[in-house]
Amino acid sequence: MSSPARSHPLAHGSCFCKAVTFHINDMDAANCAWNMYCHCTICQRISGAPFVHSIGFRNGAITFNPPLPEDSDESNSSVLGIYHTSTFLSRIHCKRCGTNLGGRGRPSANNPDSFLHGVVSVMSGVLAPEIRPKFQPQGHVMYKFRITESAANDGLPKFDEFPGEN
User: Fold this and answer.
1) How many other C-beta atoms can be found within 10 angstroms of the C-beta atom of residue 14?
2) Which of 9, 18, 109, 126 is most buried when burial is the number of CB atoms within 10 A of its CB?
3) What is the overall mean pLDDT for the chain?
4) Closest CA to 44 of 120, 117, 116, 148
5) CB 115 within 8 A of CB 122
């Protein structure tokens, strides 16, 4: 049984220029496919960072504006872009500002019943700041590709802002 439609989304976010927005309308644990740090080489190259925090949902829990095309990875939108990064995942980005918003699982010839098929994910950094604390990562995936050990225990100084900035 699906959850009733909500008049207000439970979470929302956007790209940097706000040309592409999204709403998460159902955060039911059954619809959450993952909430993890990903260390895969594709995430590293797309983000330019050693790892990303991604949250994936099933069953249409995330809606984008402009909308994602339903059965295609071709977007007719002037701002919403979709880029194939592998046989099983396409990345969603803003064509205007370049923000990597997340991804969408695709069925592959080798695995038409892939775990990722039907899953849409967003990066935690594109969530509205007040929403981010609700999504604490549950683990690390693709850890064998890590560039660095977790920043939490690395012994380096931690700064709230750039050093020297007030």
Assistant:
1) 19
2) 126
3) 82
4) 148
5) no
